[in-house]
Specification:
mainly alpha, single chain, 88% helix, Anthrone_oxy, 162 residues
């Protein structure tokens, strides 16, 4: 029974990491590049709207749910409760918790909060936006890669169940 529950949690974490990898990849590959091409005030306004819109239950379930499962897997690993696939779970969890969750909290969210306070038509807005486009996207690349590593690691753990 416990093994089936852990399998279900790993399956959910795999899906969550995949959703987040796709979400961050889309921003790095398309959304931010498009926002960098439109007139500056429009880019800021749209990103401000995106940052407000993303704060919803579906995003929170994927983002925070995957982090919580990563913590659970770390605890299970420490107690030796997933020995045959534990390293994959630990690796995926650390990748997600550090490279996705922590990077978001430490870098992307503070930049989002700064951007939310600027007037899109102001000189300050232009200065914040220029730095935001390069720094935010760089950290977003890290989040995309970390989520992809977590996805692959969790998938490897699932393969070991078969």
């Amino acid at each position: 029974m416990a093994d089936r529950l852990v399998f279900a949690f790993v399956f959910l974490a795999t899906l969550g990491a995949g959703v987040m990898a796709g979400f961050f990849f889309s921003f790095s590959n398309t959304v931010m590049q498009a926002l960098g091409r439109v007139p500056l005030p429009a880019g800021i306004q749209v990103m401000q709207a995106i940052n407000a819109t993303v704060l919803n239950r579906v995003f929170f379930a994927a983002f925070f749910g995957t982090a919580v499962l990563g913590i659970v897997f770390c605890v299970l690993f420490l107690f030796g409760l997933v020995p045959s696939r534990g390293l994959w779970l630990l690796f995926g969890s650390v990748a997600y918790l550090v490279g996705t969750f922590l990077v978001t909290v430490m870098f992307n969210v503070p930049m989002n909060e700064t951007l939310a306070k600027v007037d899109p038509t102001s000189t300050q807005g232009a200065e914040v936006w220029r730095e935001y486009l390069s720094r935010w996207v760089m950290w977003n690349h890290v989040r995309a890669l970390a989520s992809l590593v977590a996805l692959a690691s969790y998938a490897m753990a699932l393969v070991q169940w078969v």
